[in-house]
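User: I need a structural model of Katanin p60 ATPase-containing subunit A-like 2 isoform X2 from Herrania umbratica for a docking pre-check later this week. Nothing fancy, just the predicted structure tokens so I can convert them on my end. Input:
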Amino acid sequence: MADEPSLTRWSFLFGRKRLPEPQDGQAADTPVSTSTSSNVSAKRNHSVKNTSDMAIYEQYRNRDTNLMNSNGPVANGFDSRPQKSLLPDFETAEMRALGESLSRDIVRGSPDVKWESIKGLENAKRLLKEAVVMPIKYPKYFTGLLSPWKGILLFGPPGTGKTMLAKAVATECKTTFFNISASSVVSKWRGDSEKLIKVLFDLARHHAPSTIFLDEIDAIISQRGGEGRSEHEASRRLKTELLIQMDGLTRSDELVFVLAATNLPWELDAAMLRRLEKRILVPLPEPEARRAMFEELLPEQRGEGTLPYDILVEKSEGYSGSDIRLLCKEAAMQPLRRLMTVLEDRHELVPDDELPKVGPITPDDIETALKNTRPSAHLHAHRYEKFNTDYGSQILQ
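Assistant: Understood. Predicted structure tokens for Katanin p60 ATPase-containing subunit A-like 2 isoform X2:
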């Protein structure tokens, strides 16, 4: 009798293969025959068990349900139209397990972020449309020398809307959107990190057109260690595999885009900057954009005095979009604080239907909010401008 294979960490994921036990009156070496329907049911149940926790499995399950509930019976229970499988044909079960884990990072549905919902950043939006949206809509024009850029880098101060731009790209292009962070591609098991990178790009090619969004890419591929710098071997292998996979994208015609975002572009490796061909600065909002944000977040109420938008725009120089939102929230809290003071003086609890309305925001509330809120994204503003001058992509107005 052959020795039973030893336990590995994949045994806990897939289990060990068990041979059917011989029944009464049947030899041990005689194969057990089962019906065709039992085999189909067992395979179907096994597939559902392996993929029930995947991020996009629900749409495939709903697709099968719709086929069964459609008008007219389906011949032999199968649809004659070809359907794209959930995962490509991986070589090993280990690679398939890694593909299933990465499939959870596919964004289901649309992020529902329109270009109009992003105030300002007209230059960045035009560059993104030119780099990603137009090649997908009109692929006839983007051939040969005009082949689309496969790597796009969004850099700028924190809170300026880089992630919102990536969501707008996913909404407008309607591509398969992979939202990848460092936790998605870094594993504690030796050799799995670089395999995850390879499986990620295989999945992106399988679901093309697709967009791989690498948020905070400086945490994944910072400058590699050279003389006098120490770097772990696993980190170096991960970076090398990512560079190799991105180099393969630039030499192929598949519509797979890598969209990266970072607050520290000067920390990126020079080889990665070369592969991120389009580098777009997402700057702090200009006065027109700040005014549009204030008018949307702090709208004027009918019958109340006008808010000092001009003062807000003038004194919010150097504020990011996130800082402006915090500023508006602080201004809206001032009338609520006055009301809470009145309610705290009462000893009994006021019912919900008898609660008084919150008063309007006054110019004094605006002044108080400006004093209590400070910008958080102006520390390295000059470094972003210098990096944009040296490496950025710009278009003439």
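Before docking, keep this in mind: The two ends are 78 Å apart (CA to CA).
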